[in-house]
Amino acid sequence: MTEQTCNLNLEKEVIEELEQTFQSYFSFEQNTDGYVIAIKLSGTSESAFNYSPILITEIPLSIASFTYLEVVDLSNNAITELPTFFKELKLLEVLILNNNPVSELPDYIFDLQSLKVLSLENTEIKALPEVLANQSELTHLYLGGSNFIGFPIVLNSIASNIKGLSLNDIELLPPNINDYSSLNYFSAILHNFKNLDRLQGLKTLIIKNSKAVKFPFDFKTLPSLIELRFIDCGKLRELPKKLGMINHIEEMTLDFSGCTSLQGIPETFINFNVTFLYLNGCSSIRFLPSSWDIGSIHALNVNWTTPPKNIFKTGARKLWITGSRFSSIRGIGEMSNLNFCVMTDGGLRTIPEEILNCKNLEFLNISGNKVKHIPEFLKDLPKLKSIEIGEMKL
């Protein structure tokens, strides 16, 4: 029996052991030679039939048998430390420890010269060792939700390598942030937007729980953005016009959920090819760009007394609004692309006949409003398949 056959048989035994012990909480991938190269041992099951999480406190030593491991995902457990066999995983590229009470990492983790992605979100990590500065292959570091506060200056020596970075609470980005020239994903609780526009290569920008009210007056455009999210930034009142001056044609996601003070979206954002626009909880929104080509608009729990200006002039195919107080949807007939419409739990009293101009409409749900009956003219909508008004259905 060859050494390879012996090793593969050993790995097979370990797989069977882990599957028996952890069932659907354990999953793996193999390369073309049959060696395990990726494992996931998560406290959250991928099976729809397992609802109760398990909390692994110790990493099984048998995992050391997988000598070709490139990816290890141990998220959603109760792990506080890593066993010493990890220093033998010379091919490890991705280590995910999200949602574990681990408070520090042993230095030998940073001796793994193949390590590219280190994810420590929602852990008790407070500090990073200086040896991280020598991790020349590292490209992604995720610290969001951890106990690490501020900017990890230890990364400065490998700044140009970093492509993805998530941080916890940070007041201001350092002036040398433009040294992070490869950064295309950035997520943080950031309270001052100065220097943010120096990240000219950003494709994904996610800001959460910021205390900032506005952007610097000279804020520049971020020309490569395809995903922009400001989540629960309750004091933010306006967006800079230059943020919308993007000329690429890639599909974009915009999410301003929880931005309760945001007044509107600048007209320059019409340049964006938006697939999804999220305005959940944005009760102060008053205007959107006119003739905006959008895939879908989600505005849940918005408490609008009147629909935002131009919302019915967008090219949205899907419109989902809940919790509004307006009684009329006059203007909805301009949404010629609309095929899915949900406006529930609001103050709507009537359905205007102009909705017949929405000839692509297939589904309409206005349950929880003050509409008392289904107008007969809705039967003239050629593609309408279903309408719901509380208990009434067409």
Topology (elements, then pairings):
Layout: H1 3-22, E1 26-30, E2 36-41, E3 71-73, E4 94-96, E5 117-119, E6 140-142, E7 164-170, E8 185-190, E9 204-208, E10 227-231, E11 251-255, E12 273-278, E13 294-299, E14 318-322, E15 340-344, E16 363-365, E17 386-389, E18 392-393
Key attributes of the depicted protein:
394 residues; mainly beta; Leucine-rich repeat, LRR (right-handed beta-alpha superhelix); repeat; Leucine-rich repeat domain-containing protein; LRR_domain-containing; Leu-rich_rpt
Structure description:
The protein is mostly beta strands and 394 residues long. It has a domain at 1-170: Alpha-Beta Horseshoe (Leucine-rich repeat, LRR (right-handed beta-alpha superhelix)). It is built from 1 helix and 18 strands. The protein has one helix at residues 3-22; strands at 26-30, 36-41, 71-73, 94-96, 117-119, 140-142, 164-170, 185-190, 204-208, 227-231, 251-255, 273-278, 294-299, 318-322, 340-344, 363-365, 386-389, 392-393. The chain has an 18-stranded mixed sheet, with helices on one face.
